[in-house]
Structure formats: C-alpha cells, structure tokens
Amino acid sequence: EHTAVPSNCGEDVHILANLIKLWFRELPTRLLAPIPVEAITRCDSGNESMQLLHQFSDLHKGVIMWLLDLMADVADHQASNKMSEEAISIVMAPNLYTLPAEARDDPMAQLRFGKQVAKFIVNLLRHYMSVRTRRRSASAPPPHQEDTHP
In this structure, what are the phi and psi dihedrals at residue 45, rounded to the nearest 5 degrees? Predict the structure, then answer.
C-alpha cells in the first residue's frame, strides 16, 4: 500500500528524514542484513567496515554509498543541525539491520546490538567522509596565483 507524499513535505526536513528512514526500514531485506552479526561486532575501524561492503552487489553497494553520502552531507552541517556522525548513525542504525534471533526477546541484547551497529556505521561514515575529503581536495584545481613578474 502506497500513500501519496504531501506536496509540501520538502519544506520540513523532519518529514524527509522520516521518509528516508521509513524507506530503509521497509526494505524486504534490511541494508546491513547480509553482514554476519559477528563481523559487525568485530569491526573496530572504518577501513574494516568498508571492506565488508565488497561482498555486496554493485546495486547494494550503490545504495549504501548513496546513504553514506547523504549522512556525510548532514554531518558536514552539524553546527546548524546538531547531527554529528554519531547522532546520525544512532538515528539510522535501527533502520539498517535485523535483530539477531537471540536478541529479539532480550531488551538488553537489543540495546547492545544497536550500539554495536551504530558504532559500525559511525566508523564506516567517518572512513567514507575521510576518503571523500581526500578525493575532493585531490581533484580541486590549484589556487590561482597572480603573475608577479612584469
């Protein structure tokens, strides 16, 4: 069942944010579901997290990269929106994974796993932002230098 998106939803960033979270939450398979729980909990760096993405199809990686780019754009404006890398990772994490069977009936296990996924996502996001910054600075044109010779 699909409902129409109100034409004025672009005026409120909260509506757009909720629609994005809803879209990821309603996917038939959550975005990070193919990653084994043990792999998520073992990752201690963004580089390790990014390596796990190589197992995905190009389409799946494309969706993840789109989301990372969006999250990075939001985090780049944290001075005005109060959404740091940690904050946006915590907000998005529950929409990207399926709880492991052993955590479904244990609220503490749900909380622990949610924190582990948020840590995985923040590491992934920081790594992505670092690479994005390096690529942008490497592709930036050299600063214009005025000719000082007569």
Answer: -145, 160
Sign of CA dihedral 53, 54, 59, 65: positive
Global pTM reads: 0.80
Angle between helices 85-92 and 107-139 (to 10 degrees): 130
How far the first Cα of the chain sits from its last, in Å, is: 72
Q: Tokens in use for 19?
A: 């629609």
CB under 8 Å to 127, separation ≥6 — which residues? 45, 46, 47, 49, 50
The residue assigned the tokens 């930036």 is 140
8-state DSSP, 9? G
Torsion sign, CA atoms 53, 32, 130, 73: positive
Q: How many whole angstroms from its chain centre is CA 137?
A: 22
Local structure of residue 98 (DSSP, 8 states):
-
Rounded Cα gap, residues 142 and 137, in angstroms: 10
Residue type, 48: E
Q: Give the pLDDT confidence of 40-95 residue by residue, as tens digits.
A: 989 888 889 889 988 899 999 999 999 999 999 999 999 999 999 999 999 999 99
